[in-house]
Design a protein that fits this description.
The complex is a heterodimer of chains A (317) and B (316). Chain A has 317 residues and is α/β, with parallel strands linked by helices. Chain A is 32% helix and 23% strand. An eight-stranded mixed β-sheet of chain A has the order 6-7-8-3-9-10-12-11, sandwiched between helices. Chain A has a four-stranded antiparallel β-sheet with strand order 2-1-4-5, with helices on one face. Chain A starts with 5 loop residues before the first strand and ends in a 9-residue tail after the last strand. Chain B has two domains: 228 residues, 3-Layer(aba) Sandwich (Rossmann fold), CATH 3.40.50.300; 64 residues, no CATH class. Classes of the chains: A alpha/beta (317), B alpha/beta (316). At the A-B interface, helix 8, helix 9, helix 10 and helix 11 of A face helix 7, helix 8, helix 10 and helix 11 of B.
Chain lengths: 317, 316
């Protein structure tokens, strides 16, 4: 395997004493898409903020390292990080209209991270607009975000993020606010650009359909920890963690029996204050026993080149 | 027996900038039988929520007919509307904004019963307890406030409130879209169960085709204010006739990498045009891979192919 573009090692984050991200590790190779998937509150977006070194003030990093290529950026000062963002590491968000500056022309926003004089930036911006599939770039380049549709704004944001050729792109629910036909276009675009430009993509999503569509590998998060990680096809074909298995079974599919009973995960995600010493899924897990409630299961290899944090991984059906 | 819902040539227009009205719903006819769930799908701006809001009377129709159990609601008197509104209840997408944060959930569920003088005092409390149990909550939770519940539980409260008046027609507008995946299944199971028990008709509005397929008996597909296809569920998903329906189905990312990656990737090009200036002829022709000259000038008439109704010159 080529050296990873992004490495997160043992990341732990806490808010007023509660461990809301606990020992999260993963690496993303150039040109690879890794999906961090989970339900609201699982810590996937906070993990992305920690990677960007943009954590909210209330949240403290209590452990772990972040490496970009071979650089450990964990303790870099804000001044150096600022040079990094948009250059070697970029991010796109769920609401493209909210993320773009309403008062700046599309071209100016895309050119900003190039740090070139306007005249010399323009041809590169035009090429980038074309590359993200915007028709009539010569006209669009001088328009404002309100003149564009949601799908086009997301293309503009992708252009803004990628024009400086970053080695890592963080995409936080990039298609959640878009319609399905537009989502399909944007996912195809992300996939193509990742491969062509050899950008490592960390995709944050709650949607297993999106994961199945474009992720090479997946890490399933639950209550601040990685429950399971591995190649997408292997994880979907034979989940190694009961949470993954139940989550997949609870989604209505086009191949299901209509009106049949969907699998349900009983109870609810524990609040950070309720985290016990054991597996955080134990209270909702059909396989849980006394050991699960007392000890934290480590992420260990299971069949199919995967890791699962479950004492009963072999019994997950 | 009169249908719980019968729409005929319904139009809902809004004043637009520069004079041209926004034709959010532009001539829709459909009906729902007792006990039937009609799924209404389409992308944002297609008019599906506007249609739902017009049916419950939250938006005034511009023209056309909305009949609930045979009673015409367009142009009806206040007394008729008030009486009929008890028969039609709605569940919205966001359970947080659907509930008054200063009312206990028991008060919220009891409100429609109290307003209509159906129950009071101890009988009201008993009825609220029964409704809470029916949606899988504990009667002892009646005194709690919405913020003490999770999103899925709040949606259960909203459903209990909608069921309180035993409506003939339940309208659900994206009822599970704001919920987490694991909670979504609980609420979908509940809706399917309740409908089987109560036999009410259900208009289920959603952008999620897999969810609609799971709950609906028939499915209507809207594009830019018009119906493009309406068919029994299995016919629609097995043999979609309209090119837009086919494109929508192809675009749904399936939670199975083997299936998903084997699917032909033919993403629909272009964007949805503005409903203030819809394209002439078939409104889908600007994005349609099958469009011919006729599609650009002539509005396709509604026609039947077997059990499927479709508005397309080319579909067969």
């Amino acid at each position: 395997m080529t050296a990873p573009a992004l490495t997160v090692e043992n990341l732990s984050l806490s808010i007023s004493g509660a461990n809301i991200v606990d020992g999260v590790s993963f690496a993303v190779a150039p040109g690879e898409v890794l999906a961090l998937v989970g339900e609201s509150g699982c810590g996937k977006s906070l993990t992305a903020s920690a990677v960007m070194r943009l954590l909210p003030d209330a949240i403290r990093q209590t452990g772990g390292r972040i490496r970009l290529g071979s650089d450990d950026i964990t303790d870099w000062p804000e001044r150096r990080l600022r040079d990094l963002r948009g250059q070697r590491m970029s991010m796109i968000f769920q609401e493209p209209q909210a993320a773009l500056d309403p008062l700046a022309r599309v071209g100016a926003q895309i050119a900003e991270s190039l740090r070139l004089p306007r005249a010399s930036a323009r041809p590169r911006v035009l090429r980038m607009l074309e590359d993200v599939g915007i028709s009539d770039p010569a006209r669009r380049i001088d328009q404002y975000p309100f003149e564009l549709s949601g799908g086009m704004c997301q293309r503009v944001m992708i252009a803004t993020a990628l024009i400086a050729r970053p080695i890592v792109l963080l995409a936080d629910e990039p298609t959640t606010a878009l319609d399905v036909t537009i989502q399909a276009q944007i996912l195809d675009l992300l996939r193509r650009l990742a491969v062509e430009r050899q950008t490592a993509v960390l995709l944050i999503t709650h949607d297993m359909g999106v994961v199945a569509d474009i992720a090479d590998r997946v890490a399933v998060m639950y209550a601040g920890r990685i429950a399971e990680t591995g190649p997408t096809e292997a994880v979907f074909a034979r989940p190694g963690h009961p949470y993954t298995a139940l989550l997949l079974a609870s989604i209505p599919r086009l191949s299901d029996e209509p009106k049949s009973k969907l699998a349900v995960i009983d109870g609810r995600v524990p609040a950070p204050a309720e985290f016990g010493p054991g597996c955080r899924f134990a209270e909702r897990c059909p396989l849980a026993d006394a050991r699960c409630r007392a000890e934290t299961p480590p992420l260990l290899p299971v069949a199919g080149n995967r890791l699962a944090a479950c004492f009963h991984a072999g019994r997950v059906a | 027996m009169n249908a719980p819902l019968d729409l005929h040539d319904l139009h809902v227009h809004f004043p637009g900038r520069g004079g041209a009205p926004i034709r959010a719903v532009d001539g829709v006819s459909l009906s729902i039988a007792p006990g039937e769930t009609l799924g209404l799908v389409g992308e944002s701006g297609c008019g599906k929520s506007t249609l739902a809001n017009a049916v419950v009377g939250l938006l005034p129709p511009t023209s056309g007919s909305v009949r609930v159990l045979g009673t015409e609601l367009v142009g009806a008197s206040r007394a008729t509307l008030r009486a009929m509104r008890a028969r039609v209840q709605m569940v919205f997408q966001d359970p947080v904004t659907s509930l008054n944060p200063r009312m206990t959930v028991g008060e919220a569920i009891g409100e429609p019963l109290l307003v209509r003088n159906l129950f009071r005092g101890a009988a009201l409390r008993t009825e609220v307890a029964r409704l809470l149990e029916e949606v899988g909550l504990r009667p002892s939770q009646a005194g709690n406030y919405p913020h003490q519940f999770s999103g899925g539980q709040r949606q259960r409260v909203v459903i209990a409130r909608a069921l309180a008046l035993r409506p003939a027609l339940l309208i659900c507008d994206e009822p599970v879209s704001a919920l987490d995946v694991s909670v979504r299944a609980q609420v979908l199971n509940l809706l399917v169960e309740l409908q089987a028990q109560h036999g009410m008709a259900n208009l289920f509005v959603s952008h999620d085709l897999a969810v609609v397929r799971h709950v609906a008996d028939r499915v209507a597909v809207m594009y830019l204010g018009r119906l493009v296809e309406l068919a029994p569920r299995d016919a629609l998903f097995a043999t979609p006739r309209h090119p837009y329906t086919r494109a929508l189905l192809a675009a749904v990312p399936e939670p199975d990498p083997v299936v998903q990656r084997a699917k032909p990737h033919v993403p629909l090009t272009g964007e949805i045009p503005s409903p203030a200036a819809p394209p002439p002829g078939c409104r889908f022709h600007t994005r349609c891979p099958l469009a011919i000259a006729r599609c650009r000038s002539e509005v396709p008439a509604w026609r039947m192919i077997g059990e499927t109704g479709v508005a397309c010159h080319v579909a067969y």
